[in-house]
Amino acid sequence: LRPDQLALRVMQADPANYIMENDLEQQDRQTDDKLLDVEMAIYHMLGVQEELLSLWRQCHNNWNFKGRSCRGERNWMRLTGQATTALGNAITNLCVHWRLCSKLGNDWKLFVLLGDDGALLTNRTLSNKEVKTHGKLLYNMIMKPNTHDNVGTFCCFNIYKLPTNRWTMGPDIARLRRRFEVTNGASEATLVNHHARCMSYCCMLGSISPIQQLIKERGYTVEPPMWYDWNSNARATEDKYHWLPGKSDTELCMLLDMMRQTNYMDHKLLHWVEATR
């Protein structure tokens, strides 16, 4: 879904009092054989061929690792780059949360998820200890629940409450600025990639006046929709980070300055490694 479509879906949910963020820490590492079996059963129900399912399942078994001072063979876990990584993480997230949603009953209004990230709109809270114990005992998962009554985080979005007790979404300008400032190293820092990142961020930030000006300056072909209210989203961001009023505008200016620049800097960090023999 695009940001505007996701925001519309959140707004369509029934009024709720709280938002519970519940990310699964190290989900790939913690995925065990039972969760993998459930995932494969769902693929079978969706019509995936038996031969392909057998191959996917076997990829989780008999893998090995090797370091300078250790080596071994293990089963289970989700390995980086597997064909089922994205969808499998979402299925695992649903498996881990279904009992919590069932326990909340009619108090549960909406659950949005992407991979190991999740946010739950509810009229009733669950204690952090209860949620963590639930994940450890039943699913071998490390949960990080946080409950808020005003604004929460989902990926690079704010999900915040409106005066009507309904919820909506907007971009988390602080997280966007930090992510733009330090690249993840997955792609080369070329001018083409820089402009591609800028256009992507323009779509995320929407058709606010500074973004329209940047698009005109650069001659970009993107036409981002105005999918959120800047003022209410800025107040929600400032509440979340305990900022003074106006800090969101400062963060936006800092991000726009970086988007207008085309110079990247490489930094080398000295850190600990295993001792060589």
From TrEMBL:
Does this UniProt record's set of keywords contain Nucleotidyltransferase? yes
Asked if the keyword Methyltransferase belongs to this entry, the reply reads: no
User: What GO terms are given for molecular function?
Assistant: RNA binding; RNA-directed RNA polymerase activity
Keywords (A to Z) from UniProt: Nucleotidyltransferase, RNA-directed RNA polymerase, Transferase
One Gene Ontology term of the biological-process aspect is: DNA-templated transcription
One matching Pfam family? RdRP_2
Official protein name in the record: RNA-dependent RNA polymerase
Question: Any idea where the RdRp catalytic domain is?
Answer: 17-130
